[in-house]
Design goal:
Strand content: under 5%
Order of helices and strands: HEHHHEHH
Helix content: over 70%
Largest sheet: 2 strands, parallel
Structural class: mainly alpha
Number of helices: 6
Shape: elongated
Radius of gyration: 24 Å
């Protein structure tokens, strides 16, 4: 298993300009890496929030919709949901948030678990792949959500629940709560984009800084 260079291997008494520059680079690397882990943690929490609220709205819909009837048959009960209904925007938020959560967990494992950090290839791969996967997942979910909701031909979960949010309901579906949860999921998914982008940018910078440290160590060993 390839081990990462130990920062403590550089003597504190080194006074050459290159050693001073290296010490400064190591301090900056540690600070940026901690900020990257903080951004990854924030993205994970936001992804879990999107998954929670969007998953709950889907669960409410599944429990309150009328059971399917035979083709051409008419249900004796009035439906709370329209017959033509597009759930794909909400499903896209759930699917995207699942990828964000999985990527966030992988990123934290790669950054916090010593056994993983000791393997430079695994650590570098997870630190770069986790925010990239999260960013792509958030972008796809948000773009798809707004693209479908822009259509006025078929109702979506957001358009339907927010249309009836002023109508009080003693039991589920509570339109005002479902409308608020839908918007919370959307806003969190949108905010995930800059958070994941920041984490990816810091991961790229850390990779570049680590490469410079490796090159310096190789030169010192010659």
């Amino acid at each position: 298993m390839e081990k990462r260079p130990s920062h403590s291997s550089f003597s504190a008494s080194s006074t050459s300009p290159r050693d001073v520059h290296l010490a400064s680079k190591l301090r900056a690397l540690a600070a940026v890496d901690n900020a990257r882990l903080a951004a990854t943690t924030l993205a994970l929490l936001m992804g879990m929030t999107v998954l929670g609220v969007s998953g709950n709205t889907l669960a409410v819909y599944d429990h309150t919709k009328l059971p399917a009837t035979a083709p051409g048959a008419v249900s004796a009960l009035p439906g709370l949901w329209p017959s033509e209904f597009n759930m794909r925007p909400t499903v896209s938020l759930v699917a995207g948030s699942v990828f964000v959560v999985l990527a966030g967990v992988a990123g934290l494992v790669g950054g916090k678990v010593k056994a993983v950090r000791a393997n430079k290839m695994v650590h570098t791969s997870t630190s770069l792949a986790a925010p990239l996967v999260g960013l792509v997942a958030a972008l796809v979910a948000v773009i798809f959500f707004y693209a479908v909701n822009a259509s006025e031909e078929v109702d979506t979960f957001l358009s339907w629940t927010c249309r009836w949010k002023a109508v009080p309901m003693a039991t589920q579906p509570r339109w005002d709560t479902l409308c608020a949860q839908s918007w919370t999921g959307v806003y969190m998914a949108v905010l995930l984009i800059p958070v994941e982008a920041a984490a990816l940018g810091m991961a790229v910078w850390c990779r570049k800084a680590e490469k410079e440290v490796d090159e310096y160590e190789a030169a010192q060993g010659k």
